[in-house]
Amino acid sequence: MLAGCQATQKWPPVPQGTGPPAPIIVLRSSILHSVLAEHGDLADTFAGRMTYLVAPSGQPQALAGPLAGTVKNTYIYKSYAAFAGDVAAGRLPASVHAVLYDIEKWPATPLDEQQHPQFYMRRFSTLARAHGLLPILAPARDLALVPGGGCPKRSSENLSEAYIRCGLAGADQGAAALVVQSQAEEFNVTAFRHFVAMVARQARAGNPRIDVLAQLATAPLGQPASVPQLVSAARSVHRLVDGFSLTARNVDTETTAGLLWAFSRLGRQ
Q: Which of 33, 143, 162, 235 has the most CB atoms at less than 10 Å from its CB?
């Protein structure tokens, strides 16, 4: 059934009863709007779960209908400096509940932040908490490749191993959630599960209250993933993590819908 996601499909009812809660979800606002436009029944699966609805700073996120008031509006920042600037200028509306720091080896993140990720993640969390916002950290594995960084990748290790050795998952006490950028491993379920398990252990050692979220993508590194592939990866870790962050292309509405339906059942099996 999961593989046959068609626009006219009627979603099966969400199982009721006891069991672990449905997983937390982090998802871009624009993607969720597109999915619900074709699969309105999916709105019911968000009841009773924590959902971070992500958009770039300054972009409206308001949802009407069944989802109004059930999600945490979240601004995404690729730079601590940009976040601090918005805070100082009073540009964050009261409707924003959380902020996500997507720190990676790319032009959007200043080099100094790339070279000292732990320092800036702590600053990001502290500033967010000081203004009543939930901080979500999403450090990328490629931070171990930054020239001049404090913990460069060794020739004998891969990026996942460098990520763990460098303590990039060692979130500070102020972080509400850590997104494990695990999507590059999702086609290899064994490697995916091992990496997520190691990151979750490290993150919780530094902050026992943190929510650990495994990242999935509908097309990691440009390679499309099927719903069964995504569900297989999710099932392999769903008892190790608190939820999932989903990166989806605009053309992958059906894949996203199938995965969201699967998410609604994971916590109740």
A: 143
Is 14 within a domain? no
Residue 117 domain-assigned?
yes
pTM confidence score: 0.90
Q: Is residue 171 part of a domain?
A: yes
Render pLDDT for 80-137 as a digit per residue (tens, 0 to 9): 999 999 999 999 999 899 999 999 999 999 999 999 999 999 999 999 999 999 999 9
In 6-157, DSSP assigns E strands to 24-28, 51-56, 72-77, 98-101, 134-137
DSSP string, 78-109: S-HHHHHHHHHHT-S-TT--EEEE---SSTTS
Question: What is d(CA 232, CA 96) in angstroms, rounded to the nearest whole number?
Answer: 33
Quote the CA–CA distance of 128 and 118 in Å, as a whole number: 15
Residue 47 has which token pair?
Answer: 């009841």
Domain CATH number, residue 35: 3.20.20
